[in-house]
Amino acid sequence: MQHCPARAAQRLAAAVLALCLVLALAVPHAHAAALQETHGIRMLDFSTSQILSIGNQTSGKCSWYALRYARTILDGKVSSGSGMWSNGVVWSAGGYYGYSGSLSECLQKLYTELSAGKPVIVHLKNTAVSGVKRHTNRTSSYEYHLTSSGWNKVNYPHIATSAAYGHWVCVVGIRPDADPANLKESDFYALDPARVSANGTLAVTRLLDGTIWTDNSPLKTAG
């Protein structure tokens, strides 16, 4: 018995459509997380306990941890990071893709993405900070510990980035008085894989000016 060519074509089209749907569902897609004021920082809405359950990075995997924080915020559930590491982070498996540009373009992209409810993963370079006795190279001057009464500002020079590979953080907040027409790196706050948990307390880190690595894959944004 011969099959009708039209019916065969319909079946082929249906199979192709089904395959496209499977592939589309396999890659995580971004869902907005509301940007709201949290004790003086405009921050994406996320579960503190979920982020703390992921905890601080293991050696050499800051990029993977930053991606897990981002996916946890977007998905509303803890990301295990399964399939997102293979001798290095697999950004596309987490639904994140590269963005490059000048410093001003990167800062504007950061502002736009946060305003749309999406965390941004940022590549920081090794930058010397004067007056630091422990770790003369670090990526932030202060971290902020979340308490029941607000943020406790702590000077803790804990980060020493690799000069060859830099350091990845997940930017989740911005100063309420930041000027969109004159943005600075220090307007933004991040979940830093090196120190997201300070003895079980959520810590966010304020970026230092002059640290976004604009000439080496500076941003990863949600697709």
TrEMBL record:
Residues 1-32 form the signal peptide. Keywords: Signal. This is Peptidase C39-like domain-containing protein. It comes from Faecalibacterium faecis.
